[in-house]
Amino acid sequence: MTKINLVKTSKPECIWNSKTYLGEGVLWLSKLKTLYSVDIKKKKILIFNTKKNKKKILKVNKEIGFIAHFKKDFFILGLKSEIQIVNLKKNKKILSINIEKNKPHNRINDGIIDPMGRLWFGTMDNFENKKSGSLYCLDNHLKLHLVDKGYFITNGPSFLNKNNFYHTDTKKKIIYKIIIDNNLKIIKKIKFIKFSKLEGSPDGMTTDSKNNLWVCHYHGAQISVYNPKGKKIHKVEFPVKNITSCTFGGSNNKKVFVTTARKGLNKNEIIKYPLSGNLFMFKTNIKGKKSISFKTKNFFLTI
In this structure, is residue 3 part of a structural domain? Predict the structure, then answer.
């Protein structure tokens, strides 16, 4: 008899009244007991040390799509049209890689480190009207690879293993399942899930230890959990409409941290959903996959 892994969750609670306009890119670093996230349009990095209960906000000079970890105080920032490696503590830039110089209206959106320690990120039309977005991978030798293109709004990806991952076009309301070979070439790409109008749009996502996919609903007020066959097995309802990204964390990796957004809400909706833009947390009975730091074989960055 097949064992069924039932998902159980607590009610989401607001842990930071941050009121981000477009909160995104939530990252948990267990060694530092610290949460990182960004406000894309307000050009902010939000840092929350949960052990010390200390919060601080850093300003950057460009729209920021994501923050990822490299080592110690070194992080990778997805800043509009460039990837930067920075010492966040000293506010010092170590390396800059320009992205899509020929597409001035594009910007970097979501990004994540895969199981091999490579950086994956997407670009998109900042006006959300053109299919000018692409999916990139920055490998361990700091070589940039164009993996896929033709996206309106890139979100994710979320990895099952080094060759299998999910990636989203939020405007199309489609989550794709993609298989790549060891040269980062796509072998297979299928529609995994298509959202209905009532469900909103799929945004950020993450996978748990059972390879279930946890998907944030933008304009849908929930996170849905899908099993590897694409069946919806659970949902977490929120008191806000725009759920943007989620990640597992906490001492046993059974907490889920969630960013939200105020973008696109009118005055009446802000009144109705006053917690919009805040950082949330809920508990679950299933462990998540731990966040991974970027790994490079570039001598300059390993010394």
Answer: no
What is the predicted pLDDT for the residue at 1? 39
Q: Considering the domain boundaries, does residue 267 fall inside one? A: yes
* DSSP class of 132: -
Cα gap 263→276, rounded to integer Å: 9
| 86: β partners | 75, 93
Q: What amino acid occupies position 56?
A: K
Three-state DSSP class for 151? strand
Helix count (H) and strand count (E) of the chain?
A: 2, 24
> Would strands 232-237 and 222-226 be described as parallel, antiparallel, or unpaired?
antiparallel
Task: Tell me how far apart the alpha carbons of residues 208 and 123 are, in angstroms, rounded to a whole number.
Answer: 25
Q: pLDDT tens-digit profile of 89-100? A: 999 999 999 999
For residue 145, the enclosing domain spans 13-302
Please say whether the beta carbons of 262 and 42 come within 8 A.
no
User: Residue 184: pLDDT above 80?
Assistant: yes
Q: How do residues 214-269 score in pLDDT, each as one tens digit? A: 999 999 999 999 999 999 999 999 999 999 999 999 999 999 999 999 999 999 99
Residue 247 belongs to some domain of the structure? yes
Terminus-to-terminus CA distance in the chain, angstroms? Answer: 53
CATH no. for residue 293?
2.120.10.30
Per-residue pLDDT of 193-214, as tens digits, reads 999 999 999 999 999 999 999 9
CB 79 within 8 A of CB 108: yes
What is the number of domains present in the chain? 1
Q: Examine residue 164 and state whether it is found in any structural domain, yes or no.
A: yes
All residues at 6 or more sequence positions from 19 whose CB lies less than 8 Å from its CB, including other chains = 262, 276, 277, 278
The overall pTM is greater than 0.90 = yes
Structure-token match 């748990």, residue found: 208
Contact 70, 95 (CB under 8 A): no
Contact 124, 133 (CB under 8 A): yes
- Amino acid making up residue 188: K
